[in-house]
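new request in #modeling-help
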Amino acid sequence: MKKTSLNDIAQHLGVSKTLVSFVLNGRGKEFRISDEICKKVMDAAKEMNYQPNRIAQGLRTGKTNTIGLIIADIANPFFGKLGREIEQEAASNGYSVIFCSSDENPEKSKQQISMLQQNQVDGYIISPPMNSESQIRALSKGKTPFVLIDRYFPEIESNYIVVDNFDAAYQATNHLLKLGRKKIANITVNLDLVNMKARTEGYQKALIDFGLEVDKNLVKVLPFSHENNDITRAIIELVGCKDDLKADAILFSTSKLGLNGIECISALGLKIPDDIAVVSFDNADAYKICVSPVTVVAQPLQEIGKKAVNILLDKINSPDDIPKFQQYTLKTEFIVRKSCGS
Amino acid sequence: MKKTSLNDIAQHLGVSKTLVSFVLNGRGKEFRISDEICKKVMDAAKEMNYQPNRIAQGLRTGKTNTIGLIIADIANPFFGKLGREIEQEAASNGYSVIFCSSDENPEKSKQQISMLQQNQVDGYIISPPMNSESQIRALSKGKTPFVLIDRYFPEIESNYIVVDNFDAAYQATNHLLKLGRKKIANITVNLDLVNMKARTEGYQKALIDFGLEVDKNLVKVLPFSHENNDITRAIIELVGCKDDLKADAILFSTSKLGLNGIECISALGLKIPDDIAVVSFDNADAYKICVSPVTVVAQPLQEIGKKAVNILLDKINSPDDIPKFQQYTLKTEFIVRKSCGS
DNA sequence: CTGAAAGCGCTTACAG
DNA sequence: CTGAAAGCGCTTACAG
């Protein structure tokens, strides 16, 4: 069964494909094509199972109704959920999405951007890895709109939609302080990205505002692709020292760290929250069923996803506006569970 | 900055676009184009940042180098991980993937198939929802290849790659039996799909082979979009009866059920594995950090993903073969942790 | 009201 | 060895 084209319908009906195109695009009225003919065309299209060739349309109109998504890893539930929201909002506007996992690797994201470019996507939603500034700058020079999510580059003007990481970390740390924790550690990852840095900064500011000193030994920066070993070592360092230096709480900057961290804490025979309190960024499903369900900073994934798509559609549909950038910093939600004690 | 086309390069160099096309496609040698000209073309292409328009190529050649993926929900880590493997294998073969979440809803998958069709994808990888037989049949009539994953329709001949669910459930149940559990329940979902049914059948067969009777009251079939309430009620029914009827173990047929189930079990104040043992399908990350890390049936996601893509590429690249279907039933891995006691 | 024609950016027979 | 031309399936000015 060959696919039917506009032309097939036209020939079948003995009319021009111009006409067929008009009515199938709902512009029959506009061109005052008789209802009778309209109906005949529509019926034939249905009967012959006509599916417009979007690629031909795209070539002709310069619009593919496709957007490209680059995130760190679609298998990471944080990005999976975000991807889902983006897919949903895109679909309800008639857009398809091509997804790419960069693994926070700028080489990969570069190649992926190029691939998406070749696919003539109408816009990009990108969670840019560190050291990808040049790629984003290059994108700015082109005319295809893009919006950055999760992080952005302060030195590059662009659309973005992120979360108030500083405030979130501040709040989380403050929560621990109010519960009497004094030796609060932060386990984070060596990504030189605004979002990650803001988390550690918010954490430190909370300590300072509470009148405590920031102890560098309490901040553990792990390599991005860390093993459980790395976390275990970090935790042992935090906990294996003299009593008055021992950490009594940990703020995990990502859920991946937190999940692995909690596994290690259990393996070490430590109890949460008695021996050590825990707060984590990102509301992973797993956190609900931990020994002590984990208090978390939850990001408004649906809002991020929807907004990212809508900003993009705005830009796609009114391309000639002076580039006024849309930039949002959303609030997070702090969900208290049992991992900090009371 | 407008995108540069083949023609731009040709004009810039004063040669024909035929020639440019040949050398850019690495067919310079083949057409005995002088090295000098080849180099000039390549240099110009690089300098002008030429990106081939894949959409124009697609229209001309009938190949888009894009595959369509339909799974239940990319936010579900099981499908997220699978999607990741598929993305990876596709990318390393020069393919992009458009992803769609059907929510196990045949209306959605129908629309998604149609959308992918319009996008002229070269092939589909589909985890078909129940009642989507007609869609898959329609696909069979077309010439675009597809492979089914996770489940398939026995009455429709097709490529597929699934897992031995019967055997996996048998093994899991047997494990519980050998540890002395007598009242083993199965909590599953009302999807009339081969994979789900095989899980319950394997469970029942294990009971029978062990000389036990199959107790219908021990099989709880929840609606697909269940609330925690539903699970809690099911568990109370299993556990709230007289001692000699009480379930002492549960086999969860999906990790979503298992995760929610464990949350409910904890909320009810029951201890795993002392009060009740637990085994689950799918190796969710969360299972590692449960109060009692959960014994699971792990699926070979990488193998499934790779194979699905490779089957597709095979079919795409040798389309005129007599349709000999490739069908794989892979073995699962049984990972023993602490949730069944010892 | 309807159709012939051009053209989007490619590839690929065909001709010389 | 190289180029002019056709054509993939559409849309859309233009003409009548």
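bot summary: Residues 5-7, 17-18, 21-22, 25, 52-61 of chain A lie near DNA strand D (CB under 10 Å from a C1').
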